[in-house]
Design a protein that fits this description.
Elements (H helix, E strand, L loop, with lengths): L3 H13 L8 H11 L6 H14 L6 H22 L3 E2 L2 E2 L1 H4 L2 H19 L4 H28 L7 H26 L4 H28 L2 H4 L5 H4 L5 H9 L2 H11 L6 H14 L2 H21 L5 H15 L4
Antiparallel strand pairs: 1-2
């Protein structure tokens, strides 16, 4: 079975073969621009890996792997508009380089193109593939709306946040694996266990993002830390601190997160000091480990070669134990 590095190289080659140009140019140029950002391509690689796990042939799932990557990039284009994010991976976001109207239309086109690729499966399984794809698309949108709601809601709990990132991030990891498994001939039970493995690893992946944004080594992380604090984003770290703190500290944290009037450096320093006093970095790492173990439990239920399981364990570790 191919490892992550082999499959990402293969996927990139297949993606490069696709032609996403067309007229009007303003609609299609942002698509090529966005896909050119690169990235880890974890989700499509998981689709290929899951297919190969059961069939021995990753290539069968290339259309669906491309569909997953197109769908993921559609969400990024629209998320950047909603988040007013000017930069992604060091480049101007689509709505900044063009405008919001073009970004919306290009994102919509990516969404439609994703379905064109997703449906390129044998008629015996295409219904199931599209069913997973549809449900995931709905849940990702639900997660994004919860995320937007939480920006102005001071009553968000840790459980609320975990459910939001499960929908916004976890389910797409799960669906990437489940779709690949179904194409590879896995049983429904095996595909579902692989789905839950992916969801839990996806939860750990997002929590690690939260942790790195505040406590990451900037030289390794590749960007300045504290972005979530500056933008008052209610991550797991903040919500856990609210849960663990006394009333005085809670009031201070809420005041810091309900205002943009503080000096940014002072605000980051004070919030990090509070997080440190409450051992929030340790508690977040514990939560990440919890989801990693839960994911491994689902993986161990699947009756596949142990060597192949090790490849999945390796990619899960790369997602969760990374430092950038």
């Amino acid at each position: 079975m191919n490892n992550y590095n082999q499959l990402i190289k293969y996927f990139e080659q297949e993606l490069d073969k696709q032609n996403f140009s067309g007229q009007p140019a303003e609609l299609y140029e942002p698509i090529t621009y966005t896909l050119g950002f690169g990235g880890k391509r974890i989700r499509p690689v998981l689709t290929l890996m899951a297919c190969e796990l059961f069939s021995g042939v990753a290539a069968t799932a290339i259309p669906q792997a491309i569909a997953i990557e197109l769908f993921h990039n559609f969400t990024l284009i629209h998320d950047d508009i909603m988040d007013n994010a000017p930069i992604r991976r060091g480049k101007k976001t689509v709505y900044k380089k063009w405008n919001s109207n073009i970004a919306i239309l290009s994102g919509d086109t990516l969404f439609a193109l994703a379905y064109q690729f997703a449906q390129q499966a044998d008629k015996e399984i295409v219904h199931n593939i599209l069913g997973v794809f549809n449900q995931t698309a709905i849940e990702v949108c639900e997660g994004q709306q919860f995320d937007l709601n939480y920006e102005t809601n001071n009553q968000v709990s840790v459980d609320d946040y975990i459910n939001m990132i499960r929908l916004k991030t976890g389910v797409l990891f799960g669906a990437s694996l489940k779709i690949g498994a179904l194409i590879g001939g896995a049983s429904v039970t095996e595909a579902n266990n692989l789905y839950h493995f992916g969801v839990n690893i996806g939860l750990g992946f997002q929590l690690k993002d939260d942790l790195l944004d505040t406590f990451g080594d900037e030289k390794i992380f590749g960007k300045k830390t504290g972005g979530d604090i500056i933008t008052n984003k209610k991550t797991f770290l903040y919500l856990k601190a609210i849960e663990c703190s006394n009333q005085e500290t809670r009031d201070e944290l809420m005041a810091l997160y309900n205002s943009n009037d503080y000096d940014q450096k002072e605000k980051i320093k004070r919030v990090k000091d509070i997080f440190g006093q409450l051992n929030i970095d340790f508690l977040t790492s514990e939560e990440i480990e919890k989801y990693y173990i839960k994911g491994m439990d689902y993986l161990n239920l699947i009756n596949i070669d142990e060597d192949n399981k090790e490849i999945l364990k390796d990619i899960a570790s790369k997602m969760i134990l990374r430092d950038k």
